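BUG-183 | component: ligand-complex export | severity: low

The export step for flavin mononucleotide jobs runs without errors, but we want the raw record kept on the ticket for reference. Input record follows.
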Amino acid sequence: MKPILVVYGTTEGHTRKIGEFLTERLRAAGKEVDLIDSATPQAKEVPLVYAGAFILGSVHFDRHQSALVHFVKENLGWLNAIPTAFFSVNLNMTHRDPEARAEAQKCLDGFLEETGLKPYMARLVAGALKYTQYDYFKRALLRYLVRPGGVEASATPDVEYTDWEEVGRFVDEYLEATQSPGR
Ligand SMILES: Cc1cc2nc3c(=O)[nH]c(=O)nc-3n(C[C@H](O)[C@H](O)[C@H](O)COP(=O)(O)O)c2cc1C
């Protein structure tokens, strides 16, 4: 059985946590999994042995991590030849306003357009606010940039908006759809 690759881009660490969650879920389903940070040297020497891949990145100023963009562009040929799932982690998802959600979808679509990735499935995932990790400037920026659920950003502690059950269901959905003898 060939392994599954989970590769992520992260800026404050939350997408790594989602990558670790996916990895555990896949291993619990009997899969062999390699978890790789797209910004490490390991990402430059990925063997072409995978049956499938999960690609995860978070949005900062409407863009995903450039290391992840680079990774996908460099490996596009084989990635588009196997079933891939792309998860775009963001906070626009947490707004009730449909326009904010449309923004989130635009960022996801922009990543696919820029890289040429043709994922088997692509999903928006709500991320986290990590005030304790932000410097003064990031805090100030976020107050204007993201106001999840209309909450005044600067007044809240760290908050995780990720629906872990939903992320788990995405994995199950992927596994069900890609399950076939020999895969
Ligand atoms: C400086 C900064 C800029 C951000 N810009 C956006 C944005 O443009 N759109 C959005 O939906 N979320 C934005 N976010 C929210 C992040 O996508 C969210 O916090 C995510 O969980 C970060 O994941 P990470 O810890 O893996 O980097 C921003 C967060 C920070 C700190």
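Assignee comment: Attached the raw record above. The mean pLDDT is 90.
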